Amino acid sequence: MSAPYRDQHAACPACQSPLRALGTRLCCDGCSGIFLERADLARSIGELTQDEPTLEFVDDRAGERACPRCAAMMVACALLVQVAGKRARLTSPLDRCDRHGVWFDTLELARSFEAIHALVTREGFGRGKRLRFDRGRF
């Protein structure tokens, strides 16, 4: 029995599990990877930082994974992000299909967002801030 919400043509580039469509994104429930269109990635970074980012893919080299949309081999690369007048190179190597988008392995997107947030704020997520709870108050 096939799952009706799965894209029957899309396999996860990392673990080969079927991918689930979430809008224009493809999500892997097997390894928690996600495939985003470049415009979706830029829009998400813009929402996070409240500023329009510039994305630049660098250090291209032959990849070993197929695009989940077209099955062409993706390019392994690094991502440079410029936002709020600051520039950062994300440390995780990514896989990119020039036509369809970027694959993020497990936690790579979360780590990328954390690095980008830290770039534009002094604290970043969870750094330098302590939550204070008053007993008996909600």
Describe the structure.
This protein is an alpha+beta fold. The chain has a domain at 37-120. Helix content is 18%, strand content 42%. It is built from two helices and eight strands, in the order ββββαββββα. Strands 1-2-3-4-8-7-6-5 form an eight-stranded antiparallel β-sheet. A hairpin with a 6-residue loop joins strand 1 (6-11) and strand 2. It starts with 5 loop residues before the first strand and ends in an 18-residue tail after the last helix.
- Radius of gyration over C-alpha positions, nearest whole angstrom: 17 Å
Shape by Cα distribution: globular
Taking pLDDT < 50 over at least 5 consecutive residues as the criterion, the unreliable ranges are: 1-7, 124-138
Structural class by secondary-structure content: alpha+beta
Main sheet: strand order: 1-2-3-4-8-7-6-5
Q: Give the DSSP E fraction (strand runs of 2 or more residues).
A: 35-45%
What is the string of helix and strand elements? EEEEHEEEEH
Relative helix content:
10-25%
Distance between the termini: 47 Å
Q: Tally the helices.
A: 2
Averaged pLDDT: 84
- Characterize the main sheet: 8 strands, antiparallel
What's the β-strand tally? 8
Which structural traits does this protein have?
42% strand; disordered C terminus; disordered N terminus; 138 residues; eight-stranded antiparallel sheet; single chain; alpha+beta
Summarize the structure.
With 138 residues, this protein is α+β, with helices and mostly antiparallel strands. The chain is built from two helices and eight strands, in the order E-E-E-E-H-E-E-E-E-H. Mean pLDDT is 84; it is low at 1-7 and 124-138.
